[in-house]
Amino acid sequence: MAEFTRQRGKRQEDGGLGSVLDVLLANARLVLGVSGAAVLAIATLAVKRLIDRATSPRDEGDPKAEQKTLEESWQDLALIKATPKPPKKQRREDLSEPLLSPAQLPAPGEAHEPRVCSVPPETPRVESSPPRCLTLQEKLLSHYSSQLAVPQVQVSLTLQLARSICAQLQNFLRSKCPELPFGSLFLSGPLLDGLAALATNNIHLMLPVVLDTMLWSLIPGENTVVRNPRYWMIKRTDLEYFPRGCSPWDKFIVGRYLSSNVLNETLHKMLVASINWPAIGSLLGSVIHPVVASQELKLEVKHDQVELSITLFPVVEMEDKVLLAAPPEGLVENLWLESFYRAEVSKVKELDAGDSGARQQCLCILNGVCKSHPALHKLSGSPLTHVVLHLSATSSDWTEESLADRFQQVLEELVGYLEKGVLPSYFNHKINLFCELLEEEIDDMGFMLYRAISEPDLLLKEK
């Protein structure tokens, strides 16, 4: 009975182990494939035999039985060693094809063709190089070419419109005021002289006022009521011998002086009320209207492709002086502003031609920077040109390769002049080009430029 119980328990254990092995083998094909399942079956069979022999009663004293058991054990062990090992399972991320679903697995007994796993070609690794830091020289040249260079088509159309308006205005003045000896109108401004920066639409229209030097003389600015050497007065002379009316300009005299204010007011009325600008604009394919509220003689022109602003300046040339009818703001009348623009442009071009310099390029960048910056816009134009001219007397290397050095040097010079509050004119050291700036404006400009010396990017940012 005891022996029966022992054998029954053994069979139950064997049956339970067999059931587990059968389930394991049945699912091995799904998980490991056919070859893997075969390997596992052989190994399992060998292990099962070893377990059976270990748990079965041994016939002690029977040499043949012991020999048979030993041979079978070695055969099973040899079978396990001789069975090829299944290939190592590849990591899921290394496989080029997805795992097969149970429905896609081959049926039992069906020939299984070896599947060749194609390895995807290795993508060449492109090492990203860190962004290159541009030098100040490269930044200036890039800023000049990308933001300041004016398209030639735009320049041509702007100048064509300006010249057409100039011709129309010239014809009107000759027919309306034949008694006034106006000279031939001509265009002026940075656009014509290659110093244009950002705003290409500002054109100056110069209207020469021809005076008889026997009847008129100049009064130096130091002797005027404003005591400013930049402003001059034009005095009517010899009234005892040549009374009023001898000169066609006598109608614009105030206190024996040719009044720039009276002349501007007369021309302003003509521009606003007497000229048929709608008809002229229609003829030129644009819309033209005078700026009524401005003290300047200004026209706004809108075309399909460009917009421009034209400012009319009556100009007197006497005794090698160029005087504009641009009086200072306030109650002071009759004053004429001395202009150095023509001399500035001529001198800069002369210096550049002499040493193949980049002064004009440097000025273009500086003007563009100052025009686009709220705190620096009053520095553009004449003040910058005079700083460059002063610097040219001490710095001889103005080649394009030294553009960055000269640019920073101009900024340093400007900070020095602003600290003193004085920028002497290159052509007349008595004239302070900063004399009309407010103290707060000078402080703001100096602070901004002082920062820009060490951080030029503050000025070169796109607006």
Which structural traits does this protein have?
globular, Beta Polymerase, domain 2, nine-stranded mixed β-sheet, alpha+beta, Poly(a)-polymerase, middle domain, 463 residues, 12% strand
Q: How much helix, percentage-wise, in residues? A: 40-55%
CATH topology of the domain at 150-338: Beta Polymerase, domain 2
Secondary-structure element pattern, one letter each? HHHHEHEEEEEHHEEEEEHHHHHH
The average pLDDT is 79
Largest sheet: 9 strands, mixed
Give a structural overview.
By secondary structure, the chain is α+β, with helices and mostly antiparallel strands. Among the domains are: 150-338, Beta Polymerase, domain 2 (2-Layer Sandwich); 342-459, Orthogonal Bundle (Poly(a)-polymerase, middle domain). Helices cover 47% and strands 12% of the residues. The longest helix is centred in the N-terminal third of the chain and has 54 residues, at 2-55. The protein starts with a helix and ends with a helix. One of its GO terms (biological process) is mitochondrion organization. InterPro entries: Mab-21_HhH/H2TH-like, MAB21L/cGLR, MID49/MID51, MID51-like_C.
